[in-house]
Amino acid sequence: MEEIKEIKPKQKSRSDIRILDSVTRQRRKDIHLESLEKDNFVDDESIQMSAGKQTIKEMVKKRKKVKTGEHYKKRFRKNFSSLLEEIEFQTDQPNYFTAKAPKSILPKRKFCAVCGFPSCYNCVVCGGVYCTIECQLTHKETRCNKWVV
Amino acid sequence: MSLIIDCGAHTIKAGLSSHTSPLIIPNYIARTKLDRNKSYVGSEVLSRTDMGGLLMLLAFQKGYLVNWDVERQVLDHLLGPSHLGINPQETDLVLSEPPFNFSSIRDTLDEILFEEYGFRNVTRATSANLSAFHFHTEHPESPSCMVIDSGFSFTHILPFCGLIPVTNGFIRIDVGGKFLTNQLKDLISYRQINVSDETYVINQVKEDTCFVSGDLYKEMKVCRDEMTAFRDTNRFPNSGIFIRYILPDFAGTNRGYIHDPLSKEACPPDRTLSLGNERFSVPELLFNPSDIGLDQMGLSESVQLSLKRTPPLMCESLTKNIILTGGNTLFPGFKDRLNAELRASLLSIHDLNVTLPIGPISYSWEGGKRLANTELSSRPIPLTPLTFQSYMEMGHNAWNAKSFPLFS
């Protein structure tokens, strides 16, 4: 009995655990999904910047192309989000937005965030899925607290 | 002379109408981490032996052309003497574009193709339309077909009535090859070795090892059993799901390979991957994107939705003629899985026939080749070319004038 008493104060009570709200959980999920769209692990922007410098250098070398290269860069340098803004919202015509596959009607399946096997437990703090106590510990130490690789 | 270019986000499929198969070259500029000033354009990437830490600069973003600098360099390289060596002024061009291409992208493309390169005439069609044309010439008796194009940036389901796209039924799932490679990279980096910078290598790992499972939960169980058996006996199964993959070190080996469990070859621990459920849980995202929290329908569910959105009389013919194109369809088991899921969800009166062509990647290029070889008079109006003269006269409006010849 004494042992149990010693352990008890160490355990966190429910009110001490910082539970992430649904907005934060969603944001974490979005960050992860966005990272899957990246071409490189390092920031795409930084490569593009260095690429721009490189092409200007090349353009200077080839005198003929100096004007056109700069011209195209100024006129057509657009990123994807600015393209989306251009779409006119015509309700009767199918477009990029209407073609997007809607939410599935099937229930979500759950797979352990650590080992990948089917599982049924959710992390209290962040809502991540885990399957065993081992995986839970790994999850707690890594992705639960900090959003690390 | 006709030049056909199927311009994908990851690879360009290009060739003349006299060629039997297209050149498939990377559509990006690569740089290495060590020497950022040296860049490799297009096929120069493939001539490198060391693919470690390759940084890619893609012209496409989410499947649409945005970085014109890169695209022009790749095109210059492609049309130059090292590859095709053609004179644009004497060439008819057939060029593919993504579905629902943005008008500003089209305008820019026209400007570059006509004013910079000066092509004699240009035919612009979605790559799915070229696939449909290919299918139509092979099976003229089929009134309609459904193209499933699963490429680098996204997966599209595109029903066609003859050669006319039924845009109502177009559905896009934002899961493509890049997404899957990144997911595999993420899983390996989290569970085993940090490979965050090795996109090129992990893409090869994906192509070598991943497959689409027929029964996910059954396969998960088999994989778990194999892993526990390995933990107890320290022996890998001879033929199973759980495998070891040796990454290349770019000194002795330039390409990774699956380790043969029967051989006595030692596995260097710093470049050996143990792949279990990653092998099928990654391609599974095509069928269930919600597994990692992407709130979209999977492939078979989207096909059903697309069928619902198309006129009911077409459905019967559509399900009979489903064509798979794009690199992701090369996953082993892809066709069988789609076939099984669709069969389970369709009415019994609907015949189902899913076709995986022999070269799903170059299928639409071959469609373009067939289009280039047909006479102009027998082509449907949207697939007729725009000539240099009419572009110079009317500019971007020339495309509209071509579609409605009565009003011009």
UniProtKB/TrEMBL annotation, chain A:
Superkingdom in the source lineage: Eukaryota
Record-annotated HIT-type domain positions: 112-144
InterPro entries reported in the protein's UniProt record: Vps71/ZNHIT1 (IPR039723), Znf_HIT (IPR007529)
A Pfam family that the UniProt record links to this protein: zf-HIT
GO cellular component: nucleus
GO molecular function terms noted in the UniProt entry: zinc ion binding
Gene Ontology process terms (BP): chromatin remodeling
Keywords on record: Metal-binding, Zinc, Zinc-finger
Name of the featured protein: Zinc finger HIT domain-containing protein 1
Taxonomy of the source species: Eukaryota, Metazoa, Porifera, Hexactinellida, Hexasterophora
Automatic annotation (TrEMBL), chain B:
Annotated compartments: Cytoplasm
GO cellular component terms, semicolon-separated: cytoplasm; nucleus
InterPro entries: Actin, ATPase_NBD
Keywords: Cytoplasm
One Pfam family it belongs to: Actin
Family: Belongs to the actin family. ARP6 subfamily.
Protein name as it appears in the record: Actin-related protein 6
Native species: Oopsacas minuta
Lineage: Eukaryota, Metazoa, Porifera, Hexactinellida, Hexasterophora
